[in-house]
């Protein structure tokens, strides 16, 4: 894991969660720029997962736990995005906000798990 990347993931996901929550409060759908930022966030998640998988051989922690957190982090944003696109109301936008907020928590937990196995 790269500490700077984890920090960036947490900051970006919290920012996008706040943006989605504001859109939901205003009863608006997320704008195109928000959706594009989500694709960027997903790219960062995939980079983090690739780095963690490459470095997992030298890591002494619980590999199933690590793989579980990596898998969850990889599906949160696309899952929230699909639900937001399918449910074109403020509730879909709130699901997207919850997915981004959950991603921040999962990245914090992933960083903690990684640090415990080093």
List descriptors.
about 120 residues, about 0% strand, mainly alpha, elongated
Structural topology:
Blueprint: H1 3-25, H2 32-55, H3 63-86, H4 90-117
Helix pairs in contact: 1-2, 1-4, 2-3, 3-4
Number of extended strands: 0
Q: How many domains make up the coordinates?
A: 1
How big is the Rg?
15 Å
How many angstroms does the end-to-end distance come to? 10 Å
Helical content class:
over 70%
**Helix/strand structural class:** mainly alpha
Q: What's the average pLDDT?
A: 90
Please state the overall shape, judged from the principal axes of the Cα atoms: elongated
Strand % is under 5%
Q: How many strands, which pairing sense, and closed or not: the largest β-sheet?
A: none
Description:
The protein has 118 residues and is mostly helical. It has one domain. It has helices at 3-25, 32-55, 63-86, 90-117. The longest helix has 28 residues, at 90-117.
What would a concise description of this structure say?
The chain has 118 residues and is mostly helical.
């Amino acid at each position: 894991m790269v500490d700077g990347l984890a920090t960036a993931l947490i900051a970006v996901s919290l920012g996008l969660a706040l943006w989605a929550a504001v859109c939901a409060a205003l009863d608006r759908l997320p704008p195109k720029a928000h959706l594009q930022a989500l694709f960027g966030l997903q790219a960062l998640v995939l980079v983090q997962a690739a780095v963690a998988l490459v470095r997992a051989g030298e890591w002494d922690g619980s590999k199933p736990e690590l793989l579980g957190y990596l898998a969850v982090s990889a599906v949160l944003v696309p899952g929230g995005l699909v639900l937001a696109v399918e449910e074109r109301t403020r509730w879909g936008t709130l699901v997207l906000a919850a997915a981004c907020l959950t991603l921040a928590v999962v990245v914090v937990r992933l960083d903690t798990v990684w640090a415990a196995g080093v």
